[in-house]
UniProtKB/TrEMBL annotation:
Xref: Pfam families: Flagellin_C, Flagellin_N, flgK_1st_1
Protein name, entry field: Flagellar hook-associated protein FlgL
The Flagellin C-terminal domain, residue ranges: 313-393
All residue ranges annotated as the Flagellin N-terminal domain in the record: 3-139
Domain Flagellar hook-associated protein 1 D2-like: from-to ranges: 199-274
Family per record: Belongs to the bacterial flagellin family.
Keywords assigned by UniProt, alphabetized: Bacterial flagellum, Cell projection, Cilium, Flagellum, Secreted
Length: 394
């Protein structure tokens, strides 16, 4: 076999170029920390790593969504706690206003505080989240949801759409409650029915207590309790007599699963209307209480109104507590979602590392071996190129 000088040189050159390429590739792997420098190195592994990147990016967005939802829910919980404090104070004032020893001026002072608390409720209803968005406006949260009207009422400008925030691929959580659900749709009375005095009453009879004795027996109808000749008659909305008997103060009048106790001496023709519980606003509850305290109505009517206000406020406090419970349930759901997402992210990142990351210890050892081999090849080439016949003849 004949070996030419050119052939020797080319073979040595090719060997050095190959070793240089391998060394450079290993250096890039060590420097970047990635096993595959292009998709051609391992198409399946690169494609799998890309899918894992996409999944992790989606999980990162879910985590951000959950964090924003948590912040708004925590702010709502704080606002609802303040609302409950206001309602509790209103209840205390209603109890105080029920005291028969108070003079009209004292009741007027109580009514003034009630109106101040009504304004405080309006301020809480317009609570913002610190980002220029309002907590109780639904999806229309760019503007304040509540405003006073010229007649003294309150108008809601938000909507009934609670924004759903996705916290994982299969679940979304409402990041708040709408103002209509929190402040406007509050069960009036005891949550089952309400009792009001007829405006034409002239006697001293007033409602002392009203409760549900047997919820299964109440049909949700409206009734009238009338007094005449020392007795009482209960009629339904069609005028049919449901119950009747002799009126005795502080003795319950029972019918259709309900129990009502009256006190005082009603005049003939006096009556009270019982209606199934309907929704009322927290603002109107406060306004009715202030009106009952300051309007100069007869004592019997005022006493009945005070009983109604106390019942309304008890129901309102339960309503707010139920909303706070719902907020707590959603916060717990966010915590569970965070824990599950973090665990899955760790597993995905480990899988991604297996596909993409280079073994630094192995790569560093390989780089050392390749560098030594390259250096040996270069030294050998220096020696071989000196064996040329031309150098011998020279």
């Amino acid at each position: 076999m004949r070996v030419s000088t050119m052939g020797q040189f080319q073979q040595a050159l090719n060997q050095m170029l190959r070793l240089q390429t391998e060394t450079a590739r290993t250096q890039l792997q060590v420097g970047s920390g990635q096993r595959h420098l292009s998709a051609a190195d391992d198409p399946a592994a690169v494609a799998g790593a890309t899918r894992l990147d996409t999944t992790l990016a989606g999980m990162s967005q879910f985590a951000e969504n959950a964090n924003l939802a948590r912040q708004r829910l925590q702010m709502e919980e704080s606002a609802l706690n303040d609302v409950a404090d206001v309602l509790q104070r209103l209840r205390e004032l209603a109890v105080r206003g029920s005291n028969d020893t108070l003079a009209d001026d004292d009741r007027a002072a109580v009514a003034a505080e009630v109106r101040s608390l009504q304004d405080q409720l309006l301020g809480l209803a317009n609570s913002a989240d610190g980002r220029g968005r309002y907590l109780f406006a639904g999806s229309a949260d760019a503007a304040a949801p509540f405003a006073k009207t010229p007649g003294g009422g309150v108008t809601y400008f938000g909507d009934d759409l609670a924004r759903q925030v996705p916290i994982d691929a299969a679940r979304a959580v409402a990041d708040g409650d709408t103002g209509s659900d929190v402040f406007l749709r509050v069960p009036a009375g005891n949550g089952t029915f309400s009792v009001a005095v007829q405006t034409a009453n002239t006697g001293g009879g007033y409602l002392r207590n009203a409760q549900v004795a047997d919820a299964a027996a109440y049909d949700g109808g409206d009734y009238t309790i009338g007094f005449s000749g020392g007795g009482y008659t209960v009629t339904d909305s069609a005028g049919a007599t449901i119950a009747s008997g002799t009126y005795t103060a502080d003795q319950p009048i029972s019918f259709r699963g309900l129990s009502l106790t009256f006190n005082g001496s009603p005049d003939d023709g006096d009556a009270f209307n019982l209606t199934a519980s309907r929704s009322a606003s927290l603002f109107s509850m406060a306004g009715d209480l202030a009106e009952a305290l300051s309007s100069g109505t007869p004592d019997a009517a005022r006493r009945t109104a005070m009983v109604g206000s106390l019942s309304d406020l008890d129901g309102a406090l339960n309503h707010i507590q139920n909303l706070r419970t719902g907020v707590g349930v959603r916060l717990q759901a966010l915590d569970r979602s965070d824990a599950a997402r973090e665990g899955m992210a760790l597993e995905l990142e480990a899988s991604l590392s297996d596909l993409r990351d280079v073994d630094i210890a192995e790569a560093a050892t390989r780089l050392s071996i390749q560098s030594t081999a390259l250096q040996a090849a270069q030294n050998a080439f220096v020696r071989v190129q000196g064996l040329s016949l031309f150098n011998f003849l020279r």
